[in-house]
Amino acid sequence: MKRLLIFLAFLPVFSFSQVNIERYYRDNTREGFMFSNAFGFNIASGNTSYLELTDRFRVDYNGPRTDYFTILEYNLRNSSGKKTAHKGFIHFRTIHDLDVKAVMMAEGYLQQQFDEFLLLRSRTLLGGGFRFNPVNLADSAWKAKTKVRLFVGTGVFLEHESYSTRPRQTVSLMRSSSYLSLLWDPGKNFSINMVNYFQPALNDFSNFRYSLNMSMSTPINERWLFVMSAEYFYRSEPIGGKKPNDLEIKNTFRFTL
User: Fold this and answer.
1) Does pLDDT of 168 surpass 60?
2) Which residues form the domain of 133?
3) Is 142 domain-assigned?
């Protein structure tokens, strides 16, 4: 049996409902513009044969009180000449500190998304809300000792979806979006990130989306970082007979300049 597996990730600066953007939240406090691009591919041959391509482009602008970022991501996988994954999104977000300690923040976002294998032809989101950082209420000595960042967010967004079903289905509604994000550095060379999203429809709380992302990272050297992550998605009302849940597990290498 012959088997070949290649992975390459290049990331110069960097690092559902709606895509879990909280896991992409700013991890660099330097003010000004920053650009990044991540490109990866996986190849396997033998008992399992596939080609997977992924690209993520990101631009940030961090100001004294207001930050902006845009993310464009695309994923394509072919197995035995057939597409087994084809999805992407573009997301724009702005975050404004409402106080000098950045305890309370206001945010707004716009997103466009598609996922061929969920039959999702087009998905547009427009929303906003508030995020709370209770750790910034503590003194600097405690923050330096615990090395914990905690965010609690809530808001609403307008969602419009178009599905490639026959007949074609469209859905437009308002959803609430609540999330809890924890970032912890228990050791000098080890970090943990956990993000939970819960997004019910405002007119029917039994119609909801949930996602959980957990990742662990450790530096290899000053430039390279190894990241292992798992992400779980659940949709209470999937379209077109699709399964309600998905699980993705990834191992990546991150390069920083």
Assistant:
1) yes
2) 6-255
3) yes
Q: What is the amino acid identity at position 217?
A: S
Q: Which 3-state string (H, E, C) describes 139-168?
A: CHHHHHHHCEEEEEEEEEEEEEEEECCCCC
Please answer whether residues 62 and 14 qualify as being in contact, where contact means their C-beta atoms are separated by less than 8 angstroms.
no
Percent of the chain with pLDDT over 90: 36
Q: Does residue 1 fall inside a structural domain?
A: no
Instruction: Please indicate, yes or no, if residue 220 is contained in any of the structural domains.
Output: yes
Task: Give the span between the Cα atoms of 191 and 132, in whole angstroms.
Answer: 21
Q: Structure tokens of 166?
A: 């026959």
pLDDT per residue as tens digits for the range 50-65: 677 777 788 889 888 8
CATH at 229: 2.40.160.40
Unique residue bearing structure tokens 């004294």:
64
Tell me, letter by letter, the H, E, C secondary structure of 173-226.
EEEEEEEEEEEEEEECCEEEEEEEEEEEECCEEEEEEEEEEEEEEEECCCCEEE
pTM of the model: 0.75
Tokens standing for 83? 């597409």
